[in-house]
Amino acid sequence: MSSIDTETARRVAKLSRIAVPDAALPALAQELSNILNFMEQLNEVDVDGIEPMTSVTPMRLVRREDVVTDGNQQAKVLANAPDAREGFFAVPKVVE
């Protein structure tokens, strides 16, 4: 079983950009050790021949026909544009 010390917990917190007070480091170290121990328990499970699953209940995804459309929302899309002309976004010329 792996055990994380407070110095390792301090380094993990620093790498994670999480401010952890010194008083909380022993609790963090214990929590990280618990996580690693649980991962070691999971590694002991025999999963040979088991298919990966995406859900605990078998279901079939609803599929729709893939049809290309213009979305019928041109006016809504261009409503907040600072400059729109002839149904398109107008932008300043950047290349001569």
TrEMBL record:
Coiled coil feature spans: none
Any GO MF annotation of the entry: glutaminyl-tRNA synthase (glutamine-hydrolyzing) activity
Key words, A-Z: ATP-binding, Ligase, Nucleotide-binding, Protein biosynthesis, Transferase
Pfam families according to UniProt: GatC
Catalytic activity: L-glutamyl-tRNA(Gln) + L-glutamine + ATP + H2O = L-glutaminyl-tRNA(Gln) + L-glutamate + ADP + phosphate + H(+); L-aspartyl-tRNA(Asn) + L-glutamine + ATP + H2O = L-asparaginyl-tRNA(Asn) + L-glutamate + ADP + phosphate + 2 H(+)
Domain of life: Bacteria
Record EC number: 6.3.5.-
GO biological process terms on file: glutaminyl-tRNAGln biosynthesis via transamidation; regulation of translational fidelity; translation
InterPro entries, alphabetized: Asp/Glu-ADT_sf_sub_c (IPR036113), GatC (IPR003837)
Protein's UniProt keywords contain ATP-binding: yes
Enzyme class: ligase
Primary role: Allows the formation of correctly charged Asn-tRNA(Asn) or Gln-tRNA(Gln) through the transamidation of misacylated Asp-tRNA(Asn) or Glu-tRNA(Gln) in organisms which lack either or both of asparaginyl-tRNA or glutaminyl-tRNA synthetases. The reaction takes place in the presence of glutamine and ATP through an activated phospho-Asp-tRNA(Asn) or phospho-Glu-tRNA(Gln).
Protein family (similarity comment): Belongs to the GatC family.
Stored NCBIfam families: gatC
Subunit structure: Heterotrimer of A, B and C subunits.
Designated name of the protein: Aspartyl/glutamyl-tRNA(Asn/Gln) amidotransferase subunit C
Organism, scientific name: Roseicitreum antarcticum
Gene assigned in the entry: gatC
